[in-house]
Amino acid sequence: MPLMRMAAENSSVTEFILAGLTNQPRLRMPLFFLFLGFYVVTVMGNLGLITLIGLNSHLHTPMYFFLFNLSFIDFCYSTVITPKMLMSFVSKKNIIAYAGCMTQLFFFLFFVVSESFILSAMAYDRYIAICNPLVYTATMSPQVCSLLLLGVYVMGFAGAMAHTTCMVRLTFCANNLVDHYMCDILPLLERSCTSTYINELVVFVVVGIDIGVPTVTIFISYALILTSILHIRSTEGRSKAFSTCSSHIIAVSLFFGSGAFMYLKPSSLLPMNQGKVSSLFYTTVVPMLNPLIYSLRNKDVKVALKKSLSKKTFS
């Protein structure tokens, strides 16, 4: 891979040591079992929701098409991060090869940026469903949904390539201890021997786009949705409309709140320990909570789950 060859030529470091979440030995095993439990719930929840949507034909709608892909993204980027983080709790030195570190960085960024845009696509879908229900089927056709999804993954790839390409151009110092539990942008920049000005500029521009564009899309969508809901006369209609959007609002708040806190603050104002805690939300907690939020607060998913369980019990 040309990117990895260029990385090897530009750096004297062949591997990094991930410091992990804590340096207190007595906390390692409790944290190991805690995050192992989180990961098991994440895998079961997201794969369960993917399976449920795939097997139930009445869930083959645009809303669940995007939810299917959200669960896929959550499963993937949790798998990119969590297993390596768990290693830091049970090994003396959690070593990751340079190429492995850059690969983890790329796929983490690819999935996390894709998530921000899939959430905005879901907000647009809810806007059409509530504000223009008569043209919903025509507007959110399979072709439109496929194009939106293609845009989601293209933006994910572009964001990941921008950051990773800038990162592999840096020369890293002999001190290869990364004060984090994963290969993330800001902790890696601290280990650079060369100027990181371009990288920091790319962080503010690209992250600003990757958080700003979806956030504006979501705010506009929900402002229009709220206006439409307030014009609904029946209490039952308002309640149904609010319940349709509440799950998505919770997921969006958790994801963008923690992401903005981590990347859109100057590193001098955000100690790395606080950065670790903030990044835990969008790398570990959010992927675990999303399937729970969308299933426990979603009537269609509950009905589909009951039908699937009753079929299994009957058979």
What are the defining features of this structure?
315 residues; mainly alpha; Rhopdopsin 7-helix transmembrane proteins; 3-stranded mixed sheet; 11 helices
SSE topology:
Blueprint: H1 2-10, E1 15-18, H2 25-55, H3 62-90, E2 94-97, H4 98-131, H5 136-139, H6 142-168, E3 177-178, H7 185-189, H8 197-230, H9 235-263, H10 272-296, H11 299-314
Parallel strand pairs: 1-3
Antiparallel strand pairs: 1-2
Helix pairs in contact: 2-3, 2-10, 3-4, 3-10, 4-6, 4-8, 4-9, 6-8, 8-9, 9-10
Describe this structure in words.
- This protein is mostly helical.
- It has one domain: Rhopdopsin 7-helix transmembrane proteins, CATH 1.20.1070.
- It has 11 helices and 3 strands.
- The chain has helices spanning 2-10, 25-55, 62-90, 98-131, 136-139, 142-168, 185-189, 197-230, 235-263, 272-296, 299-314, and strands spanning 15-18, 94-97, 177-178.
- The chain has a 3-stranded mixed sheet.
- α3 (62-90) packs across α10, α4 runs parallel beside α8 (197-230) and α6 (142-168) runs antiparallel to α8 (197-230).
- The protein is globular.
- The N and C termini lie far apart (50 Å).
